[in-house]
């Protein structure tokens, strides 16, 4: 088992997310760099412990890999290797691009990505997002028309009653599988849990409301995405999701 730790302000402590070796894990960039902008996080600050680095020549098969969705059906790949080259030409152990160059770029806070750990390369270890929780009480993530791989930007679970939408067109229950914006949360074993944004959901009092709903059309008000978890957002139109603490 490979465990991801997200470093928080001392008043909060740590969140811990289990990451399994030999499979895909859906992870989110949660925290901004210390002293940096509050709306970006750097993959170069992912600090590993106990995770076996691959080498450039065989990194496609033996290196831990971060896969960031490009929005058009493909992925950008980053590999954890022991023979990456930094900006000064020195050989270092780092996350690298396909050319073996150590990366230092930033991604928007709440970016989701797949983390692939090759079978047999890691029995126990940790991935630390070096940084701090953003000061903002809310974070807005852009949702593209089609699919977006987004993530929980906070050290607490996402509560669906506090997720606001902008630009997303609500569907209806009878056809929500095809026409409603949808959040798909990977269950860790090859499947997904689905939540739909519809105009005829039923709240706890039996009233019809526009809300995120489960497969039965019931408005969802509980926590659905744990700290550090990513999810797919599917929508026919571009829009925004705003998460509020």
Detailed description of the structure:
The protein is mainly β. It has 2 domains: 128 residues, no CATH class; 107 residues, Jelly Rolls (Sandwich), CATH 2.60.120. Helix content is 3%, strand content 46%. The chain is built from 2 helices and 21 strands. The longest helix is centred in the first third of the chain and has 4 residues. The protein is elongated and about 65 Å long. The N terminus is likely disordered.
Give the helices and strands, then pairings.
Blueprint: E1 2-7, E2 14-19, E3 24-28, E4 40-42, E5 46-49, H1 59-62, E6 65-69, E7 75-85, E8 91-96, E9 106-108, E10 112-116, E11 126-129, E12 138-143, E13 146-151, E14 158-159, E15 163-166, H2 176-179, E16 182-186, E17 192-202, E18 208-213, E19 223-225, E20 230-235, E21 239-244
Parallel strand pairs: 1-11
Antiparallel strand pairs: 1-2, 3-10, 4-9, 5-11, 6-7, 6-10, 7-8, 12-21, 13-20, 14-19, 15-21, 16-17, 16-20, 17-18
Which descriptors would you attach to this protein?
2 helices, disordered N terminus, Jelly Rolls, 3% helix, five-stranded antiparallel β-sheet, 46% strand, single chain, mainly beta
């Amino acid at each position: 088992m490979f465990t991801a730790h997200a470093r928080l302000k001392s008043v909060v402590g740590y969140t811990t997310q289990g990451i399994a070796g030999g499979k895909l894990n859906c992870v989110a960039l949660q925290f901004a760099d210390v002293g940096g902008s509050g709306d970006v996080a750097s993959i170069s600050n992912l600090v590993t412990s106990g995770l076996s680095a691959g080498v450039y020549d065989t990194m496609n098969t033996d290196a831990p890999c971060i896969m960031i969705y490009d929005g058009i059906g493909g992925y950008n790949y980053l590999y954890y290797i022991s023979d990456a080259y930094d900006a000064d030409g020195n050989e270092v152990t780092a996350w690298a691009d396909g050319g073996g160059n150590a990366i230092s770029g930033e991604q928007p806070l709440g970016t989701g990505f797949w983390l692939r750990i090759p079978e047999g390369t890691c029995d126990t270890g940790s991935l630390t997002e070096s940084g701090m929780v953003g000061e903002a009480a809310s974070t807005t993530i852009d949702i593209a028309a089609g699919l977006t791989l987004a993530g929980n930007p906070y050290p607490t679970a996402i509560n669906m009653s506090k997720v606001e939408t902008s630009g997303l067109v609500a569907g209806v229950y009878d056809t929500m599988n095809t026409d409603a914006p949808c959040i798909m949360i990977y269950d860790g074993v090859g499947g997904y849990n689905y939540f739909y944004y519809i105009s005829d959901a039923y709240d706890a009092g039996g009233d019809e409301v526009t809300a995120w709903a489960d497969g039965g059309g019931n408005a969802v008000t509980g926590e659905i995405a744990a700290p550090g978890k990513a999810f797919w957002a599917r929508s026919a139109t571009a829009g925004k999701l705003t998460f509020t603490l």
